[in-house]
Design brief:
By secondary structure, the protein is mainly alpha-helical. It has 18 helices and four strands.
Amino acid sequence: MAEFKEISPNASAGAKLTNWFENRFPTMFSAYRVHMSEYYAPKNFNFWYIFGSLAMLVLVIQIVTGIFLVMHYKPDAALAFGSVEYIMRDVPWGWLIRYMHSTGASAFFVVVYLHMFRGLIYGSYRKPRELVWIFGCAIFLCLMAEAFMGYLLPWGQMSYWGAQVIVNLFAAIPFVGPDLALLIRGDFVVGDATLNRFFSFHVIAVPLVLLGLVVAHLFALHDVGSNNPDGIEIKGPNAPKDAQGHPLDGVPFHPYYTVHDIFGVSVFLMVFTAIIFFAPEFGGYFLEYNNFIPADPLQTPAHIAPVWYFTPFYSMLRAITSEMMYALIACVLLAAVLAAVKLKLSSLFKAVVLGGAVVATALMLAIDAKFWGVVVMGGAVVILFFLPWLDNSPVKSIRYRPDWHKYMYGVFVFMFMILGYLGIQAPGVWGNLWGQDIAQRVSQLFTLGYFAFFLLMPWWSRIGQPKPVPDRVIFAAH
């Protein structure tokens, strides 16, 4: 048992109350000191570092608004759409809660995408933060599952048909696909059983996993310390420290960065509330107009597309056609030949690599392109987990890499955004050229570019002369 701390009888009532709690719950106060008041973060954080705290804020918004929505929502195929209309029209302030939740879903992906981009440009996935990045990617994957299941719940036209398309993709998996799709749907068609399954996962199972991953992400981050725009370790054995062992290039997270984050939260909430009150549908990107029509299994919408935050990956899925398979086969064979020629491998390993390429080619020809589209869509997310081992640059931060690396990241972001745009649009948005859909050709090219960015990173990240990295972080008081 921990020893009780004494306090002066003349202390204020607030100090006495704090002392009473600290003697009975010392773990909480210890956690506060470890993760807030005595946690030293680099003093050169910039605005890119507010998106982690904003993600926490949006998570809280989604949980709180979700609790109130569940009080009135009916997970029944005959009643779900009507219950959402009841929330919007009859429940006091129900429209506000629903719009906060729907806008919060898009806001979550906005801040998470920006948070991941910050990690990408500043090398926050590099040693010793590999596990922090892996937990973050797992959060992203979990968030995608949570958003997809929540998208079904309003039971509008796009909810129903979007779920129909995505669930049927699992049927393309060889051997187990049909049974897997049946297990996910709970029936032979998307219906009441599917809605109940997705509701239970959206409300209970996935949020529990998500919260656990968030806690693991934060604990792993605070165990190894935060990265910074210079990519310099402020807590390493050779880092300068004061007499108490605190890093000279760091400041306590509280109060310095709590105030920093409060400012970011204030700006975010102004934008967030402006969207809620003036443009909750955001032109059909946050809430699609077809989803205000009750689900009708007998009437298929003219164009089925997921919400904007899924569209880059959906565009990659649509890019994989029978023609595209030949390009993928060529890439696999070329990669195997280059690996056998360039890498210092024994003859046995070279034979294994080439043999594996031949087997992969045979499988790609034998199995339907739809399945490989699912593989590409999933691989676009899974490849992020391996980023710490793909980047071989001698420096972490984009600040000290060769200038042309910035253009590489710029082209990558451009390709990702165009893929997102094309995923929303119907085929033929840019017309046809010589009988071919221009948009599909662009999506195929950019899909190859997306994977080339990561798969060729071990090579291109080493090219060029990096700039000298300073011994201490660069910081100007402001």
